[in-house]
Amino acid sequence: MWGNVEVNASFGEVLTVPASAVIDTGVRFVAFVQRADEHLEPRELKIGFKTDDYYEVLDGVSAGEKVVMRALFLVDSESQLKASISGMGAAGGHQH
Question: Is CATH 2.40.420.20 correct for 16-89?
Answer without folding.
Answer: yes
